Amino acid sequence: MTARTAAPAPAVTLEDVRAAARLLDGVATLTPVEESRGLSAIAGTRVVLKCENLQRAGSFKIRGAYVRMAQLTAAEQARGVVAASAGNHAQGVALAAQLLGIDAIVYMPTDAALPKIAATREYGAQVRLVGTTVDEALVAALAESCTTGAVLIHPFDHPDIVAGQGTLALEVLEQVPQVRTIIVPVGGGGLAAGVATVVRALRPDVRVVGVQAANAAAYPASIAVGHPVAATGMSTMADGIAVGTPGLVPFTLLQEAGTEVRTVSEEDLSRALLLIAERGKLLVEPSGAAAVAALMADPGGFEGPVVAILSGGNIDPLVLLRVVRHGLASAGRYLQCRVRIDDRPGSLASLLAEFAASGGNVMDVGHVRTGVDLAIDEVEIDVQLETKGPEHCHDVLEHIRAAGFRIVKQR
User: Fold this and answer.
1) Under 8 Å CB-to-CB from 175, ≥6 apart: which residues?
2) Are residues 295 and 239 in the same domain?
3) Burial 308-318 (b: 16+ CB within 10 A, else e)
4) What is the pLDDT of residues 194-230, one digit of tens each?
5) pLDDT single digits (tens) 70-93
6) In the predicted model, what is the mean pLDDT of residues 354-363?
7) Backbone phi and psi for residue 10, each to the nearest 5 degrees, phi listed first
């Protein structure tokens, strides 16, 4: 690692990106941009979503994977390719291999989302589950490459990958020519580096902001010390951007461009995913919502028009269920409280009737009959409700108090 990071990173130019765009003609989809009135109201400026979640294989990854693999020699293609990914790069490589007639092996973490594993196999790649992180899977992929001669298709640390991802920025500048800020999810940094390369060459007046999950953020510390360093933690729902160490190629490009990289919390991500689904009618994975999460976390911090890149939509339905519940709670759409009532017939029915009158939708009810501060004729009722937001939560609680009930806990 020391020897690799000490070497100068290959440059990526605007012409490299334009050449990549020519390779991708007829392969990658020109994904739409959608103006978001809801986000525009939050940000106080025009916000446009670049819907790369609607790209082939469900994310931007097909761009870089295809560009890298299409430029392999015939001998290299004959040896096959190997890759490592939590899911999106896996599908991009598998689809590119299918289109180019190349054998592909993809190493994925053992806890990778089942739909991503299934989709990768359906595209024709052989999937091998190794380790618990992308970094561990990458070690196995590198070993496979060294042993068999298969070409390693790195998820982000190669000039061809960066050039392919940068084609997205060419589209953004044509689709939203008035853009002043582009917000990009960041894992290893390939997409952000490609975007920064294009913007730096064509529109230096446009600000590019990268976003990482705070629980898996290697870039802020790396930028601070001037070279890639490993993240101190890797615990986030945003598996698509959970990368332990920045790639040298993208890191160098982002550093040269002076690109800011900020972080968002798990609550920010879940709220963003929920808003995109509710207001934008779009399904994205947590990493794909990172740009919107940054916008919502700092609504006045970006000059508009703003383009927020929705980088992927490959979400496990079980994760979606958990994230939506978490997002609803973070947005004040759930209320949990404990109410002390008399332990006699009709008391619970009266309490639930008051919750119904307040407009809250009761989801779950539990009894607590033991407690050192409970009288022998008292019981506490745990209630979970769906509400219409934080203001409605306040109104529900005030209604219950006005009805004569004692609330002993709320959250």
Assistant:
1) 33, 48, 50
2) yes
3) bbbbbbbbbee
4) 999 999 999 999 999 999 999 999 999 999 999 999 8
5) 999 999 999 999 999 988 999 999
6) 88
7) -60, 145
For the whole model, what pTM was predicted? 0.83
Q: Which two tokens stand for residue 321?
A: 């269920």
Averaged over 161-175, what is the pLDDT?
A: 98
Around Cβ 101, how many Cβ atoms within 10 Å?
Answer: 9
Q: What band does 5 get if pLDDT is binned at 50, 70 and 90? A: very low
Q: Do residues 58 and 314 make contact, with C-beta atoms less than 8 angstroms apart?
A: yes
Check whether residue 314 and residue 272 sit in a common domain. yes
Radius of gyration of the chain (CA): 25
Q: Do the strands 334-342 and 81-84 form a parallel or antiparallel pair, or are they unpaired? A: unpaired
- 65 lies in the same domain as 16: no
Can you tell me the distance from the alpha carbon of 398 to that of 410, in angstroms, rounded to the nearest whole number? Answer: 12
Binned at pLDDT 50, 70 and 90, residue 372 comes out as: low
Q: Which residue, 363, 385, 375, 361, is CA-closest to 406?
A: 375
Regarding whether 127 and 236 lie in a shared domain, the answer is no
Q: How far apart are CA 406 and CA 381, in angstroms?
A: 11
User: In 10 A of CB 231, how many CB atoms?
Assistant: 23
- Both structure tokens of 66: 């295809």
Name, in order, each residue with C-beta under 8 angstroms of 189's C-beta and a sequence gap of 6 or more.
Answer: 156, 210, 219, 246, 247, 250, 251, 253, 254
Q: Is 61 among the catalytic positions?
A: yes
pLDDT over 50 at 135, yes or no: yes
Q: What residues make up the domain containing 391? A: 332-410
Question: What pLDDT is attached to residue 86?
Answer: 83
Q: What is the pLDDT of residue 2?
A: 38
Catalytic (active site) residue 388: no
What does the pLDDT average to over 390-398? 89
Please check whether residues 111 and 92 belong to one and the same domain: yes
Tell me what percent of the residues of the chain surpass a pLDDT of 70. 97
In this structure, the answer to whether residues 246 and 182 fall within a common structural domain is yes
Contact between 259 and 209 under an 8 Å Cβ cutoff? The reply is yes
Claim to verify: residue 336 and residue 312 sit in the same structural domain: no
Choose, from 61, 85, 287, 330, the residue flagged as catalytic. 61
Of 36, 270, 287, 311, which is the active-site residue? 311
Shared domain check, 190 and 136:
no
CA atoms within 13 A on the CB side of 107: 25
Q: CA–CA separation, 244 vs 233, rounded Å?
A: 8
